Amino acid sequence: MRGILADWILFVIAAYLLGSVPFAYILAKAHGIDLRTIGSGNIGATNLSRVLGRRWGYVCFFLDMLKGLVPMFAARALLVSSWQGHGMPQGQILAMWLVVGAAAVVGHVLPIYLGFRGGKGVATSFGVALGLWPYYTICAIITLCIWVAVLLLWRYVSVASIVAAVSFPVILLAAIAILPGWEFRGLWPIEAVAAVIAAVIVILHRANIRRLMSGTEHRIGAK
Predict the structure, then answer these.
(1) Would 222 be classed as within a structural domain?
(2) How far is CA 144 from CA 82, 126, 148, 195, in A?
(3) Which one of 23, 45, 99, 108 has the lowest number of neighbouring Cβ atoms within 10 Å?
């Protein structure tokens, strides 16, 4: 059991360090720009797209998503099967697996390489969700559809992100109630983590909420 715990701690640390890689900052710096001093000052794909264009925003979103997806895949391949072989309860396995992904999100939001000033964690959280098959993956795909629909309707990235974040734990709860074999008794840890991540994302968008209320929030397509 001690070896299992040591391996898990190493994965959590590695996930945090990977999550801390500030791809938006690196891409902007490669163009001679300090992203922290332009636009919203946020180290994320949305601010990067405003500075360098949508193409680079898409590249950054994909890279930030991988920061959450890769640790989840690696943990599944190297840790989860071992935990199952030791007879660890499903709820504990899911909780420990999710902590690895959560460490990547924390790294993106509080990157050690940039003085703990990072992005809002939406893309990295999406990568984590895609990696937790099947429970988060199915719900993440539905949430992505909601994000796209809200973005097309109102053209605010912040509104789409907030609505998607709040929708995710609700969709997961509905799936647990409806789908056969998905029992809340064994899946409550991932529902709790989903609710926490949603709350964190909303809190990190508080400046956007203030700008929305004052009518100064940036709208996609606006000059």
Answers:
(1) no
(2) 31, 8, 6, 17
(3) 99
CB distance 128 to 160 below 8 Å = no
Return contacts of 82-89, CB within 8 angstroms, 24+ apart: 82/4, 82/7, 83/4, 86/1, 86/4, 89/186
Q: Read off φ and ψ for residue 23, nearest 5 degrees.
A: -60, -40
Half-sphere exposure of 196 (CA within 13 A, CB side): 12
Whether residue 221 lies inside any domain: the answer is no
Given a cut of 60, whether residue 223 has pLDDT beyond it is no
Would you give the end-to-end CA distance of the chain in angstroms?
57
Domain range holding 93? 2-214
Integer Cα distance of 38 and 4 in angstroms: 44
Q: Summarize pLDDT for 182-216 with one digit per residue, the tens.
A: 999 889 989 998 999 899 999 999 999 999 999 99
What's the predicted TM-score (pTM) here?
A: 0.91
Task: Confirm if 151 and 157 have CB atoms less than 8 A apart.
Answer: yes
User: Does residue 220 sit within a domain?
Assistant: no
